[in-house]
Every structure is written in structure tokens, then in C-alpha cells.
Design a protein that fits this description.
Layout lengths: L1 H29 L2 E2 L2 H9 L3 E6 L3 E6 L10 E6 L3 H9 L12 H34 L1 H9 L15 H15 L1 H6 L7 E5 L6 H12 L3 E5 H6 L4 H15 L3 E6 L1 H5 L10 H17 L6 E7 L17 E4 L5 H12 L10 H7 L5 H17 L7 H17 L6 H20 L6 E5 L10 E4 L10 H22 L7 H16 L33 H28 L1 H14 L1 E3 H12 L1
Parallel strand pairs: 1-4, 5-8, 5-9, 6-7, 7-8
Antiparallel strand pairs: 2-3, 3-4, 10-11, 10-12
Helix pairs in contact: 1-4, 6-8, 10-12, 13-14, 13-15, 15-16, 17-18, 17-21, 18-19, 18-20, 19-20, 21-22
The structure holds adenosine-5'-diphosphate, magnesium ion and zinc ion.
Length: about 600
């Protein structure tokens, strides 16, 4: 394609040249003699002009120029001079001729110049395009440079504080080290591993470490790189990536920032999403088409799993998701130790205290912190980085993060701690609630400031009335704890309240669990809800019933709130002790809380 375009520049130049030649040729062959106007007038008076064609400026014709009376005369041409002047000039016998400014060159330029300009611009653009494509076009030759990163010497030791994620990846590493061992036994491995977690927690680093540990080639590309490229290239690039990877198997393909590429299809900007869609489709096709037995593992990272196209998460694609969460205090300590290896720190550095000083920070922040401290030490002309440098660095980094709204302050942390313990304590003291696994005040996602993890022991198909009530009490435990401890309540409970009200409403309207409303089903048929038009299914009960339902829902929620308050008042000393522990460790097991309660209760 390009060759053809390049040639056509020469076609244009050639054309111009031919036109010029032709012009010269015609002039010379036809040999029209140009004569002065006075000469023409003279010939006219001597009756030697045989025929003329008169134009605005010019007269052409035949005249007997060399006295040969027999012939029709030779061709001539002359430029007119206006009459008045020519009479005057003739009177004084001046030889005169008219001249027309040659417009040929000007005409030519008025055509040629814009053409040349366009050709120039177009040529320039083509060059830029081919320049960009060059990497792609010549991929066959230096492909290794483009995707493959050799000499990866990142190992698991470089990644700290994410032990759970590491554990899950061990299996992948084992597989990559010896794919046959696995496949001989008929074992099936995930094709795609998706690392999910907030920015800076070490997802990219972790992927590299997997490659480094298993000593296999690592093909890495970021999602935005696919999309930035020219139309059609993204898909081609995906295809090419897989071809190369298969050649080099066992290996890892790593797509960083998958969300840039894998946003759910059908939303986003009107223009330009076609290209992304094509690329995404190609990726899906490739993922379906390859056999994990060849030993290619696809890894990807994202911090926004919720916007990913559901097709990406289906079985056989990125079906294994690994959470790379924010580190707790112990994790931060380990990460700091990793990065401290790179600098000269003083012996008596209290890493544990540093970890305690940096709640909410992720790996990238801590790496930044260590670097900042080292710079401060250099500025102070010290031989070693000591605690005072670190303390100042913590302040600086914290201030930066607080500005970006990524850290919660101390008093908020306290509220969150008591809130979560409220949920957990109520759950532990009521029968039939799901066991408490973990209580954490490490922020998670965008909205949750802390969380209490309850894991059901078995699948449930039926729930008893008391169990539902207890569930509501647990949900309200967070707010109840806030009220008891601080005498004030916060907005942190709005999600809890909405869940509690939902359960209560269902109890009244669907399960017939309210004595006053009775054993009737009032939820009506669940019709589609047309949000925009405000048209919704009509509930089939009277206004009076509606009021009764509202009252009953409120009654149930109120009762359970009182129950939670009562429980928490009883456990107040335990609450305080546990809060202290939680604020220090940021994450405690349900077991720990349970034993605190047992101690106090005994
Ligand atoms: P993500 O991809 O999750 O946004 P990165 O892997 O790019 O985060 O991390 C950026 C940098 O932060 C890393 O190069 C490393 O120096 C540091 N870092 C992040 N997490 C960790 C960790 N768990 N252990 C050690 N260093 C980390
Ligand atoms: Mg990253
Ligand atoms: Zn809550």
C-alpha cells in the first residue's frame, strides 16, 4: 500500500515536467512568429496580412512576412497596443509592441503549489504513521524487544505484605516451571489470573515476580497501549502477542491496567470505542482459542474490576481473581524492610514504629517514603538515614496523601474501629449468626472504611424469624457502638441501615412474619421498573396497609437496635480493649475478639 502512495508523488512531478516539455515543443513546432505591433500595422497597411483572429490582448493570423505572394502567409502573433497610443507612436515612427505579462508561470504555480503542499502534508503524515507502525511492522525481526522483558530479576522476596496473594500464585509458578508434570496428571490450570487491588499495592510487581520466580519469559503490555494505537492495530497486536507467546511457551502474558481495554462494551465515549471493542473482542477470541496445556498463563491487573466487561470474567477466561489488598501493619513493616535494603539506614531504626506511623499507606507509598527519607538525609549531609529523617518523610508523604483524600484521620479511624467491633460483638453474642472471620479497619474499595467479614458455614435455603432478626441486630451493631462510645452517630452506617430495612421490609411484606400485618404476601408481582418514566408496578394494597407496613418495619428495626445497644453496653469493657488492639494491628481475627469476650464473661 505504501509503495504505491510513494510512487504517485513522482507521477505528479513527472506530469508537470511532461506538460512543460509539450508546451515548449508546440511553440517551437508551430513556429508562430511574434512580431511587434507596429510591424503588424505596417504589414496591414501594405496589404500583406491575409487573415487574423482577434482576441482581447492578442492578434494571431497569417501574413506574407517574406514577400512570398503565392503562399497563404506565415503564422504570426502580436500583442495589441491601444489605438490612441499606437497612432501616436506610428506618427513618430517608433517600433512598438505590446507585451502581455506571462501568466504561465503564475498559473502553473497557482496549481502546482497547493498540490505540492497537499502532497507534502500527506507525505509527512504517512511517514509519521509508518514511523509508528514501524515497531509493529518490523515486529518479526525484533519482537523480543517489544513485549518481552528479559533479565527480570524480581522475585517473591521483593514483594512483601501480600502473603495471601503470593500463596495463591505459588501454584501458577509450579505449573510454569514444569507444565508437563501438571498436564500429565490431567490437572487443569486457570488460563487467566486477574490481580485486583487498589493502586500501588504491588500488582505489577507481583506479576513480574511470578515470571522471575519461574524463570519464564514475561510478555508485558498495558491495556492503554492497545487502545492508543491506530485503528485495527490493537486487534492485530493482540493476535501477534499470542502468536509470539505460544512460540516461547512456557511463559506469561501480562496485561497491566486491563480496565483501559476491558471496559464493558457498549458504554464510554461515542467515538473511538470501536477500536477498543475490536481489541477486546480479539483478546476474548484468543483467550478462548488457546490451550492452557501449552504453558501460556495470562495475567492481568486492574484496580477497577467492577467496570470490566463481564465476558472477561467468565469461566475459561480470567476466572481466577486474586485480591492484592492494602497491607496491614505487619505487611507495611515487611515492605519497608524490602525497600530499606536499598539505602544506608542507621542500625537503630525502629521499623515497627514506622509501620505503625503509616496506616493506610500502600507499597508504592512506602517505597516513596523510604526514598524521601534518603533524600532528606542527603540534604542534611548525613552518612546514614536515621529515624528523624523518616519521621519527617512520614509527615510529608502523609500530608500529600491526605490532600489526595486517600487516608482517613485518627479520630475517624477510632470511629471505624468501634463501629466494626460493634457488628462483630453483636454477631458473636447472638446465636445463629454467621461466624466472624476478620475485623479490619483497612479501607477497602472506595466506600468502605473498614469491614467485618462474616463467612457462612453452610449454604442456607431457609431462614428462621429469629435468625433474620439477629441479622438486623448485627447490621445495626455498628451504629449502636458509635452511640454508646461517642454519644454521637456518623454517616458510616448508611449501608447497614439500608440492608437492615430491606430485611425488615421483606419480613413484613413477603414472609408474613409480622403479627399485625398477618400472613399475607404483599410484595406484589415484581414488574419491570421503568426508572426514567417513573412508571412502576402498582402495589396491591390500601393506603392503610401501607402505613401499617411502614410502622411494622420501623418497629422491627427499632427493636433490634435496642437489642444491639443492650448487648454492647454489657460488653463495653471488651469493646474498649478490642478497639485498642484493632487500632494497633488494624486487623484482628474473630477468634481474638471471642477470647477477649470469654475472658471478660468468665
Ligand atoms: P500496582 O501495579 O499495584 O499499582 P506496582 O506494582 O506498580 O503497583 O507498585 C509500584 C511500586 O511500589 C513497586 O515498584 C514497588 O517499588 C512498590 N511496591 C508496591 N507494592 C509493594 C509490595 N507489596 N512490596 C514491595 N514493594 C512494593
Ligand atoms: Mg501497576
Ligand atoms: Zn457497618
Amino acid at each position: 500500500m505504501e509503495k504505491h502512495h510513494k510512487f504517485s508523488i513522482w507521477y505528479v512531478l513527472l506530469g508537470i515536467w511532461v506538460v512543460l516539455l509539450l508546451q515548449q515543443y508546440l511553440v517551437s513546432v508551430l513556429a508562430i512568429k511574434v512580431i511587434p505591433y507596429s510591424e503588424f500595422l505596417r504589414l496591414l497597411k501594405e496589404n500583406k496580412v491575409t487573415e487574423v483572429a482577434v482576441k482581447a490582448n492578442e492578434i494571431q493570423g497569417r501574413a506574407l512576412l517574406n514577400g512570398d505572394v503565392q503562399s497563404k502567409g506565415e503564422l504570426f502573433r502580436t500583442i495589441r497596443v491601444d489605438q490612441e497610443l499606437s497612432e501616436l507612436l506610428a506618427q513618430y515612427h517608433v517600433t512598438f509592441k505590446g507585451e502581455v505579462e506571462s501568466t504561465f508561470l503564475r498559473d502553473l504555480m497557482s496549481w502546482v503549489f497547493p498540490i505540492l503542499l497537499f502532497v507534502g502534508i500527506w507525505y509527512f503524515m504517512m511517514r509519521r504513521m509508518t514511523g509508528q507502525q514501524a515497531g509493529f511492522m518490523t515486529l518479526g525481526k525484533n519482537k523480543a524487544k517489544i513485549y518481552m522483558e528479559d533479565e527480570l530479576n524480581v522475585t517473591f522476596d521483593d514483594v512483601a505484605g501480600v502473603d495471601e496473594a503470593k500463596q495463591e500464585l505459588v501454584e501458577v509458578i509450579e505449573f510454569l516451571k514444569d507444565p508437563h508434570k501438571y498436564t500429565e496428571l490431567g490437572g487443569k490450570l486457570p488460563k487467566g489470573v486477574l490481580l485486583v487491588g487498589p493502586p500501588g499495592t504491588g500488582k505489577t510487581l507481583l506479576a513480574k515476580a511470578v515470571a522471575g520466580e519461574s524463570r519464564v519469559p514475561f510478555f508485558s503490555l498495558s491495556g492503554s497501549e492497545f487502545v492508543e494505537m491506530f485503528v485495527g492495530l490493537g486487534a492485530a497486536r493482540v493476535r501477534d502477542l499470542f502468536v509470539q507467546a505460544k512460540e516461547k511457551a512456557p511463559c506469561i502474558i501480562f496485561i497491566d491496567e486491563l480496565d483501559a481495554l476491558g471496559k464493558a462494551r457498549g458504554f464510554g465515549a461515542v467515538g473511538g470505542h470501536d477500536e477498543r471493542e475490536q481489541t477486546l473482542n480479539q483478546l476474548l477470541v484468543e483467550m478462548d482459542g488457546f490451550d492452557p496445556k501449552v504453558g501460556v498463563i495470562l495475567m492481568a491487573a486492574t484496580n477497577r474490576p467492577e467496570i470490566l466487561d463481564p465476558a472477561l470474567l467468565r469461566p475459561g477466561r480470567f476466572d481466577r481473581q486474586i485480591l492484592v489488598d492494602r497491607p496491614d501493619k505487619k505487611g507495611r513493616e515487611d515492605i519497608l524492610k524490602v525497600h530499606l535494603k536499598g539505602i544506608k539506614a542507621s542500625e537503630d531504626l525502629d521499623v515497627e514504629r514506622l509501620a505503625a506511623m503509616t496506616p493506610g499507606m500502600v507499597g508504592a507509598d512506602l517505597a516513596n517514603l523510604v526514598n524521601e527519607a534518603a533524600i532528606l538525609a542527603v540534604r542534611r549531609k548525613k552518612k546514614q538515614v536515621d529515624m528523624s529523617d523518616f519521621e519527617e518523610a512520614v509527615e510529608r508523604v502523609m500530608a500529600g496523601l491526605e490532600k489526595k483524600n486517600r487516608l482517613i484521620n485518627k479520630s475517624e479511624r477510632e470511629i471505624v474501629a468501634y463501629h466494626e467491633l460493634g457488628h462483630a460483638t453483636v454477631a458473636l453474642s447472638l446465636p445463629g449468626t454467621d461466624p466472624v472471620q476478620k475485623i479490619s479497619i483497612i479501607p477497602r474499595g472506595i466506600a468502605a472504611l473498614g469491614y467485618t467479614m462474616q463467612v457462612p458455614t453452610e449454604d442456607r435455603f431457609l431462614m428462621k424469624r429469629t435468625e433474620l432478626l439477629n441479622k438486623i441486630a448485627v447490621l445495626l451493631g455498628g451504629r449502636a457502638a458509635e452511640e454508646i462510645v461517642f454519644g454521637d452517630i456518623s454517616t458510616g452506617a448508611h449501608n447497614d441501615l439500608s440492608k437492615a430495612s430491606d430485611i425488615a421490609r421483606s419480613m413484613v411484606k413477603e414472609y408474613g412474619m409480622s403479627a399485625k400485618v398477618g400472613q399475607v404476601y404483599l410484595a406484589g408481582e415484581k414488574r419491570p421498573l421503568y426508572l426514567e418514566t417513573g412508571f412502576r408496578g402498582q402495589d396491591e394494597y390500601s393506603e392503610a396497609t401501607a402505613q401499617l407496613i411502614d410502622a411494622e418495619v420501623r418497629e422491627i428495626v427499632e427493636q433490634q437496635y435496642l437489642k444491639a445497644l443492650e448487648i454492647l453496653k454489657k460488653w463495653r469493657p471488651v469493646l474498649d480493649r478490642a478497639a485498642k488492639l484493632l487500632l494497633e494491628k488494624e486487623k484482628i481475627d474473630g477468634e481474638t475478639l471471642k477470647s477477649l469476650m470469654d475472658e471478660a464473661g468468665a
